[in-house]
Amino acid sequence: MGQNEIKTQFEMHELDERMREAHKDAYRVRSKNEVARMRSLTVALASVLIVFLAALWFLFGDS
């Protein structure tokens, strides 16, 4: 193997490592606390939306 081939192999290995790390970061596992907080936020936002739509229907529905 020549110097350039060895250098290229080391560069490819480093690139593979960086890609593996980026992949891990992209598909990060969420903790149970984070999932519970997101679920409660979603329920709260859905509730607010339902109340808002009901208020609009009450105000403008019987025109």
Structure described in brief:
The protein has 63 residues and is mainly alpha-helical.
If you had to describe this structure to a student in words, what would you say it looks like?
The chain is mostly helical and 63 residues long. It has one domain (3-60). The chain has helices spanning 3-26, 32-60. The termini are far apart. The model has no long low-confidence stretch (mean pLDDT 88).
Query: In percent, how much strand structure appears in the residues?
Result: under 5%
Number of helical stretches of at least 4 residues: 2
How would you spell out the order of helices and strands?
Answer: HH
Percent helix range: over 70%
Largest sheet: none
**Terminus-to-terminus distance:** 85 Å
Number of domains: 1
Low-pLDDT runs of 5+ residues are none
Shape label: rod-shaped
Q: What structural class results from the helix and strand content?
A: mainly alpha
Overall pLDDT metric: 88
- Give the total of beta strands: 0
CA gyration radius, whole angstroms? 26 Å
Write the layout of secondary structure elements.
Blueprint lengths: L2 H24 L5 H29 L3
List its traits.
63 residues, 0% strand, mainly alpha, 84% helix, rod-shaped
